[in-house]
User: Fold this.
Amino acid sequence: MKKGKNLLRIGAGASFADDRIAPAVDLAERGELDYLVFECLAERTTARENLTRMKDPEKGYTPRLLDRMGAVLPACLRNEVRIVSNMGAANPAAAAREIRRYAEEHACGEVSCTVVRGDDVADIVRSQPQLRIMESGEPVESLLPKMASANAYLGADVICRALETGAQIVITGRVADPSLFLAPAMHHYGWSYDDIPRIAAGTAAGHLLECCAQVSGGCFADPGKKEVYDLARLGFPYADISEDASFWISKLEGTGGRVDLATCKEQLLYELHDPANYITPDCVLDITELELLQTRKDRVQVQGAKGKPRTPTYKVTVGYHDGYIGEGQISYAGIHAVAKAKWAAEIVQQRLKDRGFTYPEVRVDLIGMSSVHRKSFYPTEPYEIRLRVAVRTDNRKAAEQVGFEVRALHVNGPGSGGGGSDPVVREILAVQSVLLPRGLVDSQVVIEEAH
Amino acid sequence: MIRVYDIAHSRAGDKGDTSNISAIAYDEAGWKILREQLTEKVVMKAFAHIARGPVKRYELPKLQALNFVIEGALGGGVTRSLAQDVHGKSLSSLMLMIELPGVRGGKTAKARQNKSKSTASRKAS
Assistant:
């Protein structure tokens, strides 16, 4: 904890792999932080990075690792801010080596990094084909032939073990997002898992911070209705946490955004199902009695988190190959724009069919009219429209053809189609979940200092 | 009629093929209407053209908020959906488009005011 302070301050530095960097640098420089946490892994990111690592054993961590670390490291070292991040993705050890190498090359000196390994449970899942997929109830056996990765959401306990080494930086692979924030508080104050109210409060703090600017005015503004001050200079949030697990969410003075009851409520319910039973590896959080209090401008106190002990299992995300998505786009404008776009979509599908390509799923979007909510609430026809045709298929060639047929509408379709996109083909990495008993996973977790 | 937009704000989140969408009242009067009128059935009807369902509603009286969990709402799941908005982040706006009866007869000044605003904005658009 910083000298003269009685609250532990944890900043949020990222909410996804490509999040903005400058507000995190601002926090590192001016925030008087004890910890800066970067959450950079979406559901399927680890699956994608696992494939990268298989091609190159020195890769497989978050691709923008050094952009981010390079930007914040000088201020974090100068101000003694410890860093915790899941940017290790599928290769935390390589990420730590890269950070240390970068620090030495850029005159930051020797930086201590500790790595958490053991979230990769692919071998365990392969040996347990009877495990039930949570989404479908089917045995996981059916996914094994096309499985790309399997990673357990580890909890705060393993991050605490890494923090105990004293390292400046802790790099993990898959851990639950709130655990990244709970761990520094547990470590600093010596909280144990028996102390459910504190673990629950720390988890609630982590949940509020894990999506970074989404609690400080991002993903919120609606002009004329929900105003956000200086959104362009949106600041990232931090939490001040006391020994008794009272905590306050705030942001730095001089930054844009807002932290108030409305922004906190939206983020509290974000990606949460049953509010009395939010399952994390650290506890089962209950926010139904939670109370929010605005203590001053851009500062909200959070009280009343409850919880139950952690469950005996870890949630595991299984990534698997699931075919390809192909798509193409083209624009029409002026008189009959919508009619032309609809007709063009029929022509593309007819041509693909005539060439022998069939697809399990085809989607036609009229962008500007009904592509997002699948219907329009306004009766007027738009002046211009962008047609998008997308398919899913196991056949890569069939996926490619969609984009080619859409672009060919320039010369072979209705009049005045313009701006056809380059054909797009994406390999699909889908994810499903299973539960694994803790013992199976814990025994393979390794905490090691990077060299 | 009023829209949910007039009395509440909302955010949508994703987990696999499930979307969770909040409806958070701006004030006590709005909360009463939300709690009474924004039912699972009403939400299911509004999302029927994109979601398989079912819809489950959770109440958070202390926050004056509802949380709706809508199954089969994300085109097969974030990672494999053909949609552009694969996460369904924009579905909060669809929640706010839902029309509710509002308070009839002894309606509050606030609700009346919001209603007249919403009518005006509809006319403007």
Notes: Helices of chain B lie at 4-7, 28-37, 40-47, 91-97, 109-124. The first strand of chain B starts at residue 2 and ends at 3.
